[in-house]
Amino acid sequence: MTKKDKNPKGGLTQAGRNKYNRATGSNLKAPVGRAPKTPEEMRRQGSFLVRMGSAAGPLKDEKGRKTRLKLSLEAWNHYGDKASAVSKGRRLLERYQNKKKKK
């Protein structure tokens, strides 16, 4: 990925997602940057928060600037620490499972 493919606010730009999708045959979507409204958004946001909250690495660099990890968590509407990201993600996944069972 080149610098123009990375969003300075975290995650990838649309051009970066398109480039990744073409290269890998994936269907990478934009972050859910608000409270999830649909079960699919709950599942996507919950999975992301658990995965990134469990990722190795600091949220700030040695100069106190936000790392790409912190920026990506913020792009997915999470402004706390990594432990709270995992906790929030698990709650969202549990809500998703409960909605899925009701159908």
Question: What is the count of β-strands?
Answer: 0
Number of domains: 2
Radius of gyration: 15 Å
Shape: flat
- Output the number of helix runs: 4
Protein architecture, described:
- Helix content is 53%, strand content 0%.
- With 103 residues, it is mainly α.
- It has two domains: 1-30, no CATH class; 34-102, no CATH class.
- α2 (39-53) packs antiparallel against α4 (82-102).
- The protein is flat, with a radius of gyration of 15 Å.
- The model has no long low-confidence stretch (mean pLDDT 94).
Labels describing this entry:
single chain; 103 residues; mainly alpha; 4 helices
Question: What can be said about this structure in brief?
Answer:
With 103 residues, the protein is mainly α. Helix content is 53%, strand content 0%.
Give the SSE layout.
Layout lengths: L13 H11 L14 H15 L14 H8 L6 H21 L1
